[in-house]
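Inverse folding, one chain.
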């Protein structure tokens, strides 16, 4: 089984005690106020000890670091978000809110692989803490974080987050070989690309070249570092619903780094890609792409590429042999 490419590490800007700065950075956002037990429809939560306290309109939780079973709280979002925050109370004594502890902070992690983002101070009393990421994410995990502490009780009020209004998500693989060459020219890819309300491009994608005709590229990895072009549009083909969207095709250019087998990442590479979302379950989705090193095409297949033909040449669409690509519009 081919491994799914990992989503790359995020770069974040923190807004510590600066809610107005966070709001200015994202422009529009959604709020979960915890005034009733029904969460916003795009949110779900898995928590060992946390719950919504409707008496006070907040989320109460206890995160255990040691001295007993370790506990977590994980918030999930059906739509990729790029900004998150809230008003946190970790340090107030008395009941309510019955929070505090021996000084443990809260560690914040994202992206399912639980990449460390930051730490919320254990002394905060009704302080806004939030961040904006350059990589979209769909999960946030909270856990106690302090070598000297074993637990942290806290309340969270008015949890805020900002979603991408239009984005491409998912991944898959293509296999160009047939018969005895069935495992030849296998490339897998995954990630998220989109833009914010102010049309700032963001996201990251990763490509793995597992067994390709260019032997030097076998087991090479491309990791994007910047999105320079992202265009969504609707052609005459099927898709994308579900989910509903006003586009079924995306064209993107991403700059990045390439690591050959046994080597180090080297800058100066670009991927040009054209993908189609033809609906569920993804068997009719397709991708055309080429890897370029600034001097010419390093790897491509025989595709009919509708953009930048001077760079990419003649090409034919590759349908996914596994996976699913989804274009979303809010």
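Residues assigned per position:
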């Amino acid at each position: 089984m081919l491994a799914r490419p990992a989503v790359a590490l995020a770069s974040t800007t923190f807004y510590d005690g600066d809610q107005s700065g966070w709001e200015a950075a994202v422009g529009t956002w959604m709020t979960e106020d915890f005034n009733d037990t029904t969460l916003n429809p795009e949110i779900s939560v898995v928590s060992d000890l946390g719950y919504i306290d409707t008496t006070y309109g907040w989320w109460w939780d206890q995160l255990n670091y040691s001295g007993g079973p370790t506990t977590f709280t994980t918030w999930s979002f059906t739509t990729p978000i790029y900004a998150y925050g809230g008003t946190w109370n970790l340090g107030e004594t008395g009941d309510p809110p019955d929070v505090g502890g021996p000084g443990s902070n809260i560690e914040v992690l994202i992206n399912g692989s639980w990449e460390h983002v930051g730490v919320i101070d254990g002394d905060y009393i009704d302080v806004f803490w939030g961040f904006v990421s350059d990589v979209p994410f769909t999960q946030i995990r909270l856990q106690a974080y302090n070598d000297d502490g074993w637990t942290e009780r806290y309340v969270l009020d008015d949890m805020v987050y900002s979603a991408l209004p239009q984005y491409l998500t998912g991944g898959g693989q293509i296999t160009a070989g047939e018969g005895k060459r069935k495992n030849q020219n296998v490339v897998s890819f995954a990630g998220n690309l989109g833009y914010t309300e102010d049309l700032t491009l963001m996201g990251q994608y990763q490509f793995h070249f597992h067994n390709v005709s260019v032997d030097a590229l076998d087991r090479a990895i491309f990791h994007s570092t910047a999105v320079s072009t992202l265009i969504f549009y609707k052609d005459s083909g099927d898709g994308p619903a579900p989910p509903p969207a006003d586009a079924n095709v995306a064209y993107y250019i991403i700059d990045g780094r390439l690591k050959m087998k046994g080597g180090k990442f080297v800058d100066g590479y670009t991927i040009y890609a054209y993908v189609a979302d033809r609906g569920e379950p993804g068997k009719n989705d397709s991708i055309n792409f080429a890897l370029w090193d600034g001097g010419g095409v390093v790897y491509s297949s025989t595709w009919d590429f509708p953009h930048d033909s001077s760079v990419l040449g003649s090409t034919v669409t590759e349908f996914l042999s596994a996976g699913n690509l989804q274009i979303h519009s809010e």
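The CA atoms of residues 109 and 116 lie 5 Å apart. The helical segments are 19-26, 309-312.
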